[in-house]
Amino acid sequence: MSDPAPSPPTPRTLRLGHPRHWGPWLGVALGWCAARTPTWFQRRVGRALGPVLWRLLPARRRVVEANLALCFPGLDAAAREALAHENLAQTGLGLFEFLRAWWGRVSEGSPRYTVEGLEHLEALRAQGRGVLLVSAHFVHLELCARLLCRHVPVAGMYRPHGDAAMEWAVKAGRLRYACAMFARDELRPALKHLKSGGILWFAPDQESRRGDSVFVPFFGRPAWSLTSTHQLARLSGAAVCPFFHERLADGSYRLEVQAPLADFPSKDATADTARVMAALEAMIRRAPSQYLWLHQRFKTQPEGDRGDAYRA
Asked: What DSSP string runs through 149-171?
């Protein structure tokens, strides 16, 4: 079954023709073309981007290396370097997967994938209960979210893009498969969606300057983590289901909706946030090369700790 055609531009989008948006529109056009190239081309070029990223982005490469050293201290230097190289190759593949999810074609037979755990969502929906799907920032998260939307209606919570043209294009692409998209500050409509029995996907594993956060363990280190999962579940009564996804060696994908967290939420936001981070850490350990290690996850540290892991 093919995806529906994107909706036509609204009158508001006509203002996006201002010359200051021409650069982003060119980027969107190139991304749209790249999203529709053959899958074999995307995989070959995507992996080839790994060595290019390694050489052209030394600052980001150091972030990846620092994260791996912090999270996998048991690996020797050679093993961590090999994992870093593979991670950047996976990130190159992920770039095409993001583009394909937003603007490309996803037919009935391509990509190949399996889904496990849909019975958890079906049982909760039968109860009329909303569901928070929490996942980590794997490089294929957009494509796997699009695949899951074939089976159940899923809305997403996201961080808006800083450029208006790119924000419009990406949101329009996501709305081809998501039933709704809520910016991170659109709390009321997101809660309404959950209270009406809807499913809301989001990834709370990255550090943010906005929203209530606490320090909880993540790979054995204190990580400044959003309490959003606790707050949304408390205010809406929604269940919380971890959502894991990975790219297999044969190029197919495995999606896994896990059972809802028991006795969640509690009265302790910090304890609940620690449980969520532990669930996400367990997912990442299953496919560490496919996680987005480019993010400075441990930049903010408790008072007394300079948190200089990312300094050159």
From this structure: TTTS-EEEEEPPPSSHHHHHHHH
Kindly state the tokens that stand for 61. Answer: 């490469």
Q: CA-CA distances (angstroms) from residue 196 to 124, 154, 199, 293?
A: 12, 13, 9, 35
Residue of 11, 12, 2, 36 whose CA lies nearest to 176: 2
Write the CA distances from 59 to 138, 251, 261, integer angstroms.
Answer: 20, 30, 38
pLDDT digits (tens, 9 = 90+) for 198-227: 999 999 999 987 779 999 999 999 999 999
Task: Read off the pLDDT of residues 127-158 as tens digits, 9 standing for 90 and up.
Answer: 999 999 999 999 999 999 999 999 999 999 99
Write out the E strands in 151-238.
154-158, 180-183, 199-202, 213-218, 221-226
Q: Are 45 and 193 in contact, with CB atoms under 8 Å apart?
A: no
CB 218 within 8 A of CB 297: yes
Is pLDDT larger for residue 106 or for residue 190?
190
d(CA 304, CA 219): 20
Per-residue pLDDT reduced to its tens digit, 261-302: 999 999 999 999 999 999 999 999 999 999 999 999 999 998
Q: Minimal CA–CA distance to 136: which of 311, 299, 265, 258?
A: 258
Question: Rounded distance, CA 151 to CA 288, Å?
Answer: 27
Q: Write out the two tokens for 136.
A: 């980590």
Mark residue 214 as left, alpha or beta (left: phi above 0; alpha: psi -120 to 50; beta: remaining): beta
